[in-house]
Amino acid sequence: MTASVSQPLAVGLIGAGGMGTRHAVNLHRFVPGARVAAVYDLDADRAAHAAAQSGGGPVCDDPLQLIQDPAVDAVLIASPDDTHARLTLACLAAGKPVLCEKPLATGVADAAAVVEAEAALGRRLISVGFMRRFDAEHVAVRSAAHSGAIGAPLLFKGVHRNATAAFGVTGATILINSAGHDLDSARWMLSAEVAEVRVRGLRSRADLHADTRDLLAVELAFAGGALAVIEVFVNAGYGYEVTAELVCQSGTAVSQQPDRALVRAQGQRGFPVPSDWLSRFQEAYVIELTEWVASIREGRAFTGASAWDGLAAMTVTNACIQALTSGAVTPVQLPQRPGLYEPVNNAAAP
Ligand SMILES: NC(=O)c1ccc[n+]([C@@H]2O[C@H](COP(=O)([O-])OP(=O)(O)OC[C@H]3O[C@@H](n4cnc5c(N)ncnc54)[C@H](O)[C@@H]3O)[C@@H](O)[C@H]2O)c1
What we know:
Layout: E1 9-14, H1 18-30, E2 34-40, H2 44-53, H3 63-68, E3 74-77, H4 84-94, E4 98-100, H5 108-121, E5 126-128, H6 136-146, E6 153-161, H7 171-177, H8 179-190, E7 194-202, E8 215-222, E9 227-233, E10 241-248, E11 252-254, E12 263-265, E13 268-270, H9 277-280, H10 282-297, E14 305-306, H11 307-326, E15 330-331
Parallel strand pairs: 1-2, 1-3, 3-4, 4-5, 6-9
Antiparallel strand pairs: 5-14, 6-10, 7-8, 7-15, 8-9, 10-11, 12-13
Helix pairs in contact: 1-2, 1-10, 4-5, 5-11, 6-8, 7-11, 8-11
The structure holds nicotinamide-adenine-dinucleotide (NAD).
C-alpha cells in the first residue's frame, strides 16, 4: 500500500449511485483509518452529492485519472456491472488495491482475464463485494456448521426475495445482478465448488412482459457431493429478505432476520421487513469496508471474496443462464485455481 500508517487510506470512489453513495458515507462515518479522497460518476451531480455526503473531497471527471492519481491509495468500484472488469484491470495496472462491487464482470471471459492479470502480477489487489460473508447471521450459520458440532454440511437452502423488479426482467439479468450473491453464499457456506446446475424460471403474474422470469429455482450440485437449492424471487411484493440454511448430518443452522423491534399495531404483533438490501445489510457493508481498509493498511489479503471468487460466481452464473434456456443439467467448468488464491483463513474459504 502507498499510504503511510499514520495517514488515513485515501479511497477513490467510482460510481456514486445508491450503492456507491452508501459506501462513501459508510467509509466517512464508520470506517477507521480511511477517507473518501475523490469521487467519479458519469453523472457529475451524483458524484458531487456523494462527495458532499462523505467529507467534501474533490470530484473527478475521468475514472482512469482517478485510478492513476497518486493522491488515491485504493479504489472502490460501484459503477454499473458492465464497467467492473475494465476498471478493475486499470487498478491492477496502476498497482492499486480495489474493492469491486459484485459482479466482477458480466461474462466469464472478462472475469477470467481479471484473474489471469492478478495471478500474473502475483499480488492480491482485488476484493469483491460479496458482503454477505460479513453479515453476522450468515457468519453464525457457517460457523455452526463448520464447528463440526452438527456434522458435515449436506445441503444449502437459500431464499432471496426483492420487493419489486423492473418490468420485463429476464432470468439472465437476475442471475447476473442478483443471484450471484446466492451462488457465492452457497460456495462459501459449503467450502466447495459447484460442479453442475439446473435452473427453472417462471413469470409470477400474467400482467408482466411475456419474457419476464422473475422467480427462479436454482439447483446446484457440488464437487464432493453437497447440494444447494436457491429461490430467487425479485417481485415478492412484501419487502426484501434473504435467508440461508445449512442442513448438516446431525442438525441444521438457519439465519434469523436481524429484527430490531417487535411492533404491535393494527391488531397484529410482527417484525417489519426491510425494504431493500441497503437497510438489511448495512452492518455487513460497514464490516466489509472496515476489513478491506484494515487488510490494505496491514499489508495482508482481504478475508472476504477474491477475484477468484468473482470468477467462480460468474462461471456458475453463466452455467445457470445456459441451464435456464436449455432446461438441462449443465456442467460448470472452472479453470485450475491459481496458487495466489489459496484461502487466507477459514473465513475466506473456499
Ligand atoms: N453488494 C451489494 O449488495 C450491492 C447492492 C446493490 C448494488 N450493487 C452493485 O453496485 C453497483 C452499482 O449499483 P447501484 O445500485 O448503486 O446502481 P445505481 O444505478 O444506483 O448507480 C449506478 C451509478 O453509476 C453511474 N454510472 C453509470 N455509468 C457509469 C460509468 N461508466 N462510470 C462511472 N459511473 C457510471 C450512474 O450515474 C449511477 O450514479 C452495481 O454493480 C451493482 O451490481 C451491489
